[in-house]
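As promised in the previous annual report, we have extended the structural survey to additional targets. Below is the entry for EKC/KEOPS complex subunit CGI121.
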Amino acid sequence: METFTFPQFSTDRSVVHTALYTNISNAAALRKRIIEAAVAEGEAGERERDAVNFAFIDARLITSRLHLQTAIYQAILAESQKSLRTRTVHSEVIWALNPTNNITEALRRYGVSETTTSVIVVSIDGATTDMESKMGATVAGTLTGFSKLEDVTDWAAVAKYHKLNKLSDASEVDKIVVSTVAMKSVMS
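The corresponding structure token record, generated without further manual editing, is:
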């Protein structure tokens, strides 16, 4: 698990916790839980939304730590400027990762799916409590260090979604993908 700090934002948004989980065994159940929490009503719905109040990102499409950090930063910035394009700061992270402006497509591509085997969980709430146990309570998988992200990344899928099929150098693809995320708010 890693913690990023963005001191330029308010205290409830300045601390971000991230965790990479591999060997996910509950992807379908997790996706169903996220969808059901979004529409649940009453106090039980609030509790369930709090339990899954994270960005769940398909790790195979993340090219680097900087790629992830850039999307997180862009989401927090959009929220602080009251210009979210999605309903929450966590879904905004997923939207920022997708090269197009289609929110549904972003959630389908970059969110957790029934076939997801590795997921990055992101918590943007400034909490200093034990995030690892809260995240671990939702994901059935192996907590893995971000140094293993390169083993998870599906470069062919990244190139396909970003229309970079003629590039084979991972470093160059990463630079383009990070730049795309950084410029997305300007282009949209």
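The first strand starts at residue 2 and ends at 5. Strands lie at 2-5, 15-22, 55-58, 119-124, 142-144. These points will be discussed at the next consortium meeting with the crystallography subgroup.
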